[in-house]
Amino acid sequence: MIFTASQSTRAAQAYDLVQALQAHFKSRLGAGFTRHDWLRDGGRHGGGSRQTHGGGAPFNRASLNVSHVHYDDEPERPLASATALSCIVHPLPPRAPSLHLHVSWTELKTGVGSWRLMADLNPSLPDPADTARFREALQRASGPLFDAGAKQGDRYFHIPALDRHRGVAHFYLEQYHTADEADDRAFAARFGGTMIDAYGDILQAKLSAAAAPTPAETAAQRAYHTVYLFQVLTLDRGTTSGLLVHDQNDLGILGSLPAVVDRALFASWVARVPPPQAELVRALVDAIPTSGAIGDQEKLAFCKALRAHYVKHPSALALQARGDVVPPTVQSHGR
Questions:
Q1: How far apart are CA 4 and CA 282, in angstroms?
Q2: Residue in 291, 290, 282, 284 with CA at minimum distance from that of residue 239
Q3: Model pLDDT for residues 289-299, shown as the tens digit of each residue
Q4: Using 50, 70 and 90 to split pLDDT, how confident is the model at 322?
């Protein structure tokens, strides 16, 4: 795939970094991945590639998505470039936890640039040993920033309507930058690499010990995947922002969705959300088939429902998840 890259040296370095992390993660997860390329505005404003595993042992679904978008030729835009690695892995065995990982660099036309780092462990059946191992890796990867990142992660991944979190260990660091850009870049690389290896070790141990799941374990996994779907589609600010900015990578943006959910359980949460979000949840329920299977057709229907809802109710964006700050590029997504 050929697209125009950002003229920024810092954006180019960030693109090299996230591509290296993507390749490393893919090597830890093994074979069976397919590459999909996409272009932003025909490649004039960048593009990206994602490595996806469509299902079948050992994954329910997995997506390792790299994007590199820029607006060098549109000086009126405040955003200069945005370069990101966004990964989600949903293993097939119910006792193997899911993972979400995000490493991105955002650069504004003012010259200000910053990193966004996220990692969270999402098990259907929590294992205290896995949770402790993941949290130790987060502490090792983030050092003195651990407490702040863990606090923001707990805030971001909380689901008020269900009075629970999406996962068991969360880290979220927004707009991170210091006076030493090289050190910041090394920190982002170290954070991503450490969490990839920590999760890779947890996953390998779980897969090697996996036995045939019981009906109760399968049911628990489907219920948890339903919670995951609910959080992503009704609260995740990054997902919503990406869909509202453009429609050229919809399947990539929703690559985090699990393969099968519980439609009836999802529908039971309509009454729990504040207005006007009940309208959105009902529209999302309508897009889920009775079987609960989530394929490309369902993902595109979700995108349509989300865009229609926030065009009708732009103030509802204030109900999205957030850390301590809301990025300017998110605040201004509707421009």
A1: 40
A2: 284
A3: 999 999 999 99
A4: confident
